[in-house]
Every structure is written in C-alpha cells, then in structure tokens.
Amino acid sequence: EKIAKEYIGKLKVGKVNVDDNAETPTQYGIQGIPTLILFKDGQVVNQLVGFQSEQKLKSAIDSVL
Fold first, then answer.
1. What is the pTM of this model?
2. DSSP element (H, E) containing 40
3. Residue 2: CB partners within 8 Å, gap ≥ 6?
4. Which domain holds residue 12?
5. Per-residue CA distances from 27 to 8, 31, 51 (Å)
6. What is the per-residue pLDDT across 2-54, written as a single tens digit (0 to 9) for each?
7. Which of 17, 48, 55, 64 can bridge 36 by disulfide, Cβ–Cβ 3.0-4.6 Å?
C-alpha cells in the first residue's frame, strides 16, 4: 500500500482474495501467496512470488512503466 501511494497516477493496484476468488489463481498460475502480477496493456509482463523487498518491488514496477 505504501508503494501504491508513491505511484499514484502511474499505475492501478488491486488486491484479490484467492479464497473468495478461486478461479483467479488457476487463471494466472498462482502457486504461492503473496504473488504480485504486473500487467501492461492487459498482458502479464512480470510475476513475483513471496515476500519482496521494497527496492525489488519498485525495480519490477519501474521496468514496466
């Protein structure tokens, strides 16, 4: 959420509870939680699984912007 605030206006952030949306993990091949999926133009361009450092998250986001 902290990083989302830093990127206001540059990206959209959404959270999905996989227990309430069982089809989503299957659709995107999610095998671990937490998983961050980055999309560009509606296509998956990166996927990070497990806890990530703030710097690694920012680096992944910046590579997509």
1. 0.85
2. strand 35-40
3. 54
4. 2-64
5. 27, 11, 21
6. 999 999 999 999 999 999 999 999 999 999 999 999 999 999 999 999 999 99
7. 48
